Amino acid sequence: MEKNYRAELVGCFGDPVDGNPTGVMEEAGFAHDGLNWRYITVRVLKDDLDDAMAGVRAFNMRGVNLTMPHKINVLRHMDELSEAARVIGAVNTVVCREDGTLFGENTDGKGFVQSLRDAGIPLADRSICILGAGGAARSIGVECALAGAASIAVINRNTRRGEALAEVIRQNTKADARFIPWDGPARVPEGTDIVINATCVGLHPHGDECPNVDFDSIQPGMVACDVIFNPVDTPFLTRAAARGARTIDGLGMLVNQGAINYTLWTGRTAPRDVMYAKLREEFGL
Ligand code: NDP
């Protein structure tokens, strides 16, 4: 058989992106499956996205992840969007199809929902409280609603973004959604089952920071989740646990969205356990 030295390419474009560990996780999966695929982590500045997307075509890449600040700007390069990506209004995963067209999907919220499923936490008929209304919050809010959550309270500093997320959920899903302005310590509404920190507060190198939450409003029996995965143990989760909440860290969301992307690109079931183990090793867990 003729040898083939050419690797299939996927990767991630973002800025900042140096601290993004997705590549080691995806490449652990490729190695496990004996695939000659590479995941390249590339610093792409805000104004260079068009050139970078031309590169995706020129290099015949199989797909790419987008992170800050490209998730919305990349929309103009897509030939087709998934329903979720259209509703969320952002793409974190591009699939380059054989016919040369680009398909945009958003797997952040799907990864989050799967991490709750893995922990045996149902979403159907639950009351959710989301702190934040940025890209991650939008994805999580829409997917939780599509997964059957009954109500979603969005707490955010910026009113326009907060109201827009509540409106998107109301317009596109069966869930009831409302916006609560974030002025002063945020109170988690009574009756909340699952509260999620979907802000970037606590992200490395500011790992000692905690969102301004009135922790007395977090009750035993609630589930508290964080999207931050670096550090894995955030002050938000530590303080919520001290109130008796069950906690879910951001690593499960990360590995699950990575596993979904793996399948979208390769067409194979992702070796999720291998990818998760690699990620835990990377974080010294
Ligand atoms: P965005 O910039 O789109 O949104 C940031 C959000 O945080 C906004 O709602 C913003 O509020 C809020 N915020 C920022 N600072 C504060 C503050 N001091 N107090 C209260 N709210 C604040 O970022 P993303 O949504 O893309 O990312 C958010 C986090 O999610 C990042 O840390 C990212 O690493 C993480 N993430 C994790 C993933 C995983 O797999 N675990 C996947 C994707 C993202 P306002 O609108 O008022 O400015």
Task: Give a description of the structure.
The chain is of the alpha/beta class. It is built from 9 helices and 12 strands. The strands form 2 sheets. The protein has a 6-stranded mixed beta sheet with strand order 2-1-3-5-6-4, with helices on both faces. A 6-stranded parallel beta sheet has the order 9-8-7-10-11-12, with helices on both faces. β7, α5 (135-146) and β8 form a beta-alpha-beta unit. The protein starts with 7 loop residues before the first strand and ends with a helix. Bound molecules: NADPH dihydro-nicotinamide-adenine-dinucleotide phosphate. NADPH dihydro-nicotinamide-adenine-dinucleotide phosphate binds at residues 68, 108, 111, 132-137, 156-158, 161, 199-201, 203, 211, 227-229, 250, 253-254, 257. Residues 68, 108, 111, 132-137, 156-158, 161, 199-201, 203, 211, 227-229, 250, 253-254, 257 line the site of NADPH dihydro-nicotinamide-adenine-dinucleotide phosphate.
